[in-house]
């Protein structure tokens, strides 16, 4: 059976997973609404696929911009089958080191931006009783660690909304996918923001910063293979909800599950003791 052509809406297409996903979708014969704050890096894709790719300037921190762009895509490019929330950035620093001017933009992009894209595309998908929303989260969306607290918190929030949303829209024919990549060879860490340093945290965080610097360009994950995995998860029957990517993601997520199980078992009787006797 011939595969039906899909129309994708992808944020953050100028680099990283957004660009690779766009390339793979176009090479498979799909149509892609490419979005980025700066669309100049998209010129080669637009030239290679002039009939199936079109670019829009989009800053996901601007709610009105999101609504206008999605309305225009639906009207002038075609019904959106798959919306991918990919735009995001990383801020590195201890909780105390990062101030409001540092951590609020993390949430505005990684969480509120993805939330508003989802909310803006949902009326169209509901009307068609079909659609797929894909959230590019991170290993940090399930497992937080020192030095990445605000980044991980923004991804945790994204995943919490996705879990609720998946239940809400499943009866309407809409699917939700959460992707949790580990370390992949993109420029995300090269573009990371680093906070001021407080001496008391240096023994803990200096090795983390050094590891990020040494891994840049040498991460084990292949973004193109990740794109293939995302396609498989979307097209599976039934479609996947959660997709960890990379050996590091699987290892650390399983480690957290094991620690949670230990805590549940250790404190089970205490937890049960807090119910009323007649409950």
Quickly count the helices: 9
Q: Spans with pLDDT under 50 lasting ≥5 residues?
A: none
Beta-strand residue percentage: 5-15%
CATH superfamily: NAD(P)-binding Rossmann-like Domain
Summed over residues and divided by their number, the pLDDT gives a mean of 94
**Main sheet properties:** 7 strands, parallel
Return Rg in Å. Answer: 20 Å
- Second rung of CATH, namely the architecture: 3-Layer(aba) Sandwich
Strand order of the largest sheet: 3-2-1-4-6-7-9
Order of helices and strands: EHEHEHEEHEHEEHHEHH
The count of domains is 1
N/C terminus separation = 54 Å
Helix content: 40-55%
Structural class computed from helices and strand pairing: alpha/beta
Give me the count of strands: 9
User: CATH fold name, please?
Assistant: Rossmann fold
Which class in CATH terms?
Alpha Beta
User: Any idea what the shape is?
Assistant: globular
Describe the model.
49% of the residues lie in helices and 15% in strands. Helix 1 (16-27) crosses helix 7, helix 3 (63-76) runs parallel beside helix 4 (100-128) and helix 4 packs parallel to helix 5. The longest helix has 29 residues, at 100-128. Strand 2 (31-36), helix 2 and strand 3 (53-57) form a beta-alpha-beta unit. The chain has a seven-stranded parallel β-sheet with strand order 3-2-1-4-6-7-9, with helices on both faces. Strands 5-8 form a two-stranded parallel ribbon. The protein has a single domain, classed as NAD(P)-binding Rossmann-like Domain (Rossmann fold), CATH 3.40.50.720. The chain has 279 residues and is α/β, with parallel strands linked by helices. The chain has helices at residues 16-27, 43-48, 63-76, 100-128, 149-169, 199-215, 223-235, 247-266, 268-272; strands spanning 7-10, 31-36, 53-57, 82-85, 91-92, 131-136, 174-181, 193-194, 242-245. It is built from nine helices and nine strands.
């Amino acid at each position: 059976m011939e595969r039906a052509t899909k129309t994708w809406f992808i944020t953050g297409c100028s680099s990283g997973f957004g660009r690779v996903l766009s390339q793979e979708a176009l090479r498979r014969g799909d149509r892609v609404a490419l979005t980025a704050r700066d669309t100049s890096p998209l010129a080669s894709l637009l030239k290679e696929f002039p009939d199936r790719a079109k670019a829009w300037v989009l800053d996901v921190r601007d709610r009105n911009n999101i609504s206008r762009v999605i309305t225009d895509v639906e009207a002038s490019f075609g019904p959106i089958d798959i919306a991918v929330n990919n735009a995001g950035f990383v801020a590195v620093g201890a909780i105390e080191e990062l101030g409001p001017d540092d951590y609020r933009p993390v949430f505005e992009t990684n969480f509120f931006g993805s939330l508003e894209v989802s909310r803006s595309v949902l009326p169209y998908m509901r009307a068609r009783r079909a659609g797929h929303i894909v959230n590019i989260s991170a290993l940090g969306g399930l497992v937080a660690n020192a030095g990445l607290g605000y980044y991980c918190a923004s991804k945790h929030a994204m995943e919490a909304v996705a879990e609720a949303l998946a239940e809400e829209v499943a009866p309407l024919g809409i699917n939700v996918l959460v992707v949790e990549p580990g370390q992949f060879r993109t420029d995300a860490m090269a573009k990371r923001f680093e906070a001021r340093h407080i001496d008391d945290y240096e023994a803990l965080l200096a090795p983390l910063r050094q590891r990020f610097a040494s891994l840049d360009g040498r991460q084990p994950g292949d973004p193109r293979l990740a794109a293939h995995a995302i396609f498989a998860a979307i097209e599976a029957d039934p479609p996947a909800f959660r997709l960890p990517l990379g050996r590091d993601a699987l290892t650390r997520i399983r480690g957290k599950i094991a620690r949670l199980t230990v805590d549940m078992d250790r404190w089970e009787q205490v937890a049960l003791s807090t119910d009323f006797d007649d409950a």
